[in-house]
Write a structure and sequence with these properties.
By secondary structure, this protein is mainly alpha-helical. 42% of the residues lie in helices and 3% in strands. It has a 3-stranded antiparallel β-sheet. Strands 1-2 form a two-stranded antiparallel sheet. A hairpin with an 8-residue loop joins strand 1 and strand 2. The longest helix is centred in the last third of the chain and has 16 residues. It is globular and about 60 Å long. The protein starts with 41 loop residues before the first helix and ends with a helix. The relative contact order is 0.15. The structure holds protoporphyrin IX containing FE. The site of protoporphyrin IX containing FE (HEM) has 24 residues, from helix 6, helix 10 and strand 1. GO terms for molecular function: cytochrome-c peroxidase activity; heme binding; metal ion binding.
Length: 372
């Protein structure tokens, strides 16, 4: 099945059972598990990105001591930038806005896929690309976009994300100068903003790595576990309890797929609109264990059409998590503010500060804002 056959932009709710479709088969997407070149260091990374082609200019900029050239040198530190300069093109904020806009269009071209939006799965790609970060070793995170490589692309937690990687690849073909890490995290930002979520400050500067930078399996959370596991995983990334609870509010969006994670169903009645409904439903509904042959998950007693993962339910059981979950259920603005801050941090995990092309993050406009 090709996406061009599924163009009509429609938004649908979780109740539209007829719109549920089995996942688009990953075999219809290009595979991106390129074998790694024999490079061993970042110097080789830059070389691979075409720095060699303008080595003379770069050398001058790096070695010159004037302020202007130092700024230029900082900008050049990003491999993505390097590739662009090699192509005689230095992208501006406006160029990244164009990439954002293309992603935003694609989000709405989902036709009958899931609930009529690719936003949730694109958001999940951004999170899984970043959430591998380990602050004690500095490995993982969004910098190198290592989910392009096997075995990381095949890790159980990443099942189904070939859909999102395939969509992002279409954008990459149009904007070849952008790094995969920048593209995927910008996808996460666009997904949140286009689905009516808070503004997410974002900066460019990630560089494409190699398979050797890929992370081992087990760095992403296991939905069947309890509070100690959730803390192990998120503390490893550098987050605290409040940030953990805020980030999990992203489960207002999208759904579980039995052919991906084994779990099934959406968390909210509006899975393509970013709200604090995830927390509200956690406290307002009565949650019971679903009777089925699949993995242990909860369903709402009233309609039996919504679900919660064991890790979601823990947010109402653990005393510290519960305090924040309740606060977000009661105050949507607080949730939006805290989600934005934590998600912006998540998107930058593993990216050395000096790689960013601007010191201040940018706020990109939604399609609606640009129309207005
Ligand atoms: C304890 C932490 C978490 C666990 C155990 C977890 C687990 C899961 C699972 C099992 C799914 C279903 C995948 C599928 O079957 O397609 C899912 C979906 C999703 N998750 Fe999480 N998640 C966690 C945190 C997060 C965070 C921090 C974010 C983003 C900030 C996030 C965003 C999403 C989104 C948007 C979906 C829907 C994807 C779709 O509709 O295709 N999750 N998550």
């Amino acid at each position: 099945m090709s996406f061009s056959a599924l163009r009509a932009p429609v938004r649908r709710t979780a109740f539209s059972a007829s719109f549920r479709r089995s996942e688009l088969r990953s075999s219809s997407f290009r595979k991106f598990s390129t074998p790694p070149p024999a490079a061993k260091s970042n110097a080789a990374l830059y070389a691979g990105l075409g720095v060699a082609a303008f080595g003379g200019i770069a050398f001058y900029l790096y070695t010159s001591s004037s302020d202007t050239s130092k700024e230029a040198a900082t900008a050049l530190k990003s491999g993505a930038q390097a590739a662009k300069v090699a192509a005689n093109f230095t992208p501006t904020k406006e160029d990244y806005q164009k990439v954002y806009n293309r992603i935003a269009e694609i989000i709405d071209e989902a036709g009958e896929y899931d609930d009529g939006s690719f936003g949730p799965v694109i958001l999940r790609l951004a999170w899984h690309a970043s959430g591998t970060y380990d602050k004690s070793t500095g490995t993982g995170g969004s910098n190198y976009a290592t989910m392009r490589f096997e075995p990381e692309s095949l890790h159980g937690a990443n099942a189904g994300l070939s859909v999102a990687r395939g969509l992002m690849e279409k954008v990459k073909q149009e904007f070849s100068w952008i790094s995969y890490g920048d593209l995927w995290t910008l996808g996460g930002v666009a997904a949140v903003q286009e689905m009516a979520g808070p503004k997410i400050p974002w900066r460019a500067g990630r560089i494409d790595g190699f398979a050797e930078h890929a992370t081992p399996d087990g760095r992403l959370p296991d939905a069947s576990q309890g509070a100690p596991h959730i803390r192990d995983i998120f503390y490893r990334m550098g987050f605290n309890d409040q940030e953990i609870v805020a980030l999990c509010g992203a489960h207002a969006l999208g759904r579980c797929h039995s052919n991906r994670s084994g779990y099934e169903g959406p968390w909210t009645f509006s899975p393509t609109t970013f709200t604090n409904d995830f927390y509200k439903l956690l406290f307002e509904e009565k949650w019971v264990w679903k009777k089925w042959s699949g993995p242990k998950q909860l369903e709402d007693k009233t309609t039996k059409s919504l679900m919660m993962l064991p890790t979601d339910y823990v947010l109402t059981q653990d005393k510290s998590f519960k305090k924040y979950a309740k606060a977000y259920a009661d105050d949507n603005d607080l949730f939006f503010k805290d989600f934005s801050a934590a998600f912006a941090t998540l998107m930058e995990l593993g990216v050395p500060t000096q790689q960013f092309v601007s010191s201040e993050p940018w706020t990109l406009k939604t399609l609606d804002e640009q129309k207005a």
